[in-house]
Amino acid sequence: MKKKTWIMLGVISLIIMMISVSVYRQVLAKGPTVQTTEISQEEISSLLMIPGTVKLPEEQMVYATPDKGEIKKLLVKEGQTVKKGAVLAKLKNPQLELEIEQNKLAIESANLKISQIEMKLDQLEDKEKALSEQVGKKEAEKQLSPEFEQLEMEKKLANIDLKQTELQKDLINKRQDELEIKSTIAGIVLAAKKPAASTIDAANEPIIHIGKLEGMIGSGLLSEYDTLKVSKGQRVIIRSDAVPGKEWQGEITKTAILPEQNQASLQNSTQAVQYPVTVKISGDTKTLKPGFQVIMEIETEKKTAMVLPLDTLFDDGDKPYVYLVKDGKAHKQNVKTGITSGKKIEILGGVSKGDKIIENGPDKIKDGLEVTVK
Description:
Helix content: 25-40%
C-alpha cells in the first residue's frame, strides 16, 4: 500500500515538473517584451551650453578724479531718470580758477603791448612824412627803416605771445568744461554719492552709476573651439536658477575677434583661451537683474535630418549601435551618428526607414535574443 502511495506521489510530482517546464519554456520562448520605434525625419538643432552673466546694455560710471577737481555738487539722485547730455555733477578746481585769471591778464597784457607798438608805428609814420619834406621820401625811408623793422618785429612777437595765450585759453576752457560731468547715455541713476574719503576703496567705487534697464544682455565666454561654431544672429535660450521655470529668447549680437584681455597672456600656457560673446535678451526682462548667473543654450546648427530617440542607442566604447527586431529576434546593428538635439540624435547610416528599433531596451538584451514586441 505504501509502495503504491509513493509511486502515485512520484508520478504526480513528475507531471507537475513537466507542466512547470512546459510553461517556463513557453514564457521564455517569447523572450523579454520590448517596445520598438522607427527612424523619422525631423528638424533638429545642435545646442551649445555656456554659463553667462546678465548685464546692462549700456552703463556709465563716474569715478573721483582729484586731478580734475573735487565734487562741488551732485545734481542727480538714485532712481532719477536722466537724458543723454544732462549735467550730473559739478567740480571745483582752485588751481584752474587761478590759471583762468592768469590767462585773462596775459591776454590783456599782450593786447596792450600790441596797441602800444601800433601807436609807435603811427608816430613813426608821421615822423617819416615830416622828414620826407626836408630830405625827400627815399632818404626819409632809408633813415627810419631800422626803426620800422624793429617795431614790426616787436609787433610780430607780441602777436605770437597773444596767440599762445589764446591757445592756452582754449585748453583752459576745455578743462573748465570738464568741471561739468555730463551723462553719455539716457537711463536711470543707479547710484549717486560723494566719495567718503580719499582712500583706495573710495577711488575704485563710482560716484555716479547710470544704466539703461531696457534690453538686458547676456555675456559669456567661448572656448577657442566653440567660437568657430558661434556667429551673429544665432538663436539662444536663457535660463536662470533664480527664476525657475522661466526662460527667455535671445540672439547672438557679437562674438569677439580677440580673446578676453586677462586671458591673452595665457596663450602660451596650458589654459585654454576664451572669447567673449554677447547675447541680446528679448521679451519681458523685469525679473532679470544685472549680475544674475544664467545658462545660455546657443543653437549652433539647424537642419532636417533622420533621427532616433537617444534611448535606442547603446555604446560599449567601440561603436554606437542599436538593436533591430527581425524575425522575433534582436539583432545588433552599428550606426553612424551626427549631432544630438535634446532627446534625439541624428543617424547618418546603419538604419533604414521601416526598421523596427528597440526603444529603451533592457540592459540584458543581447544579439540574437528572442524578444516579444509590445
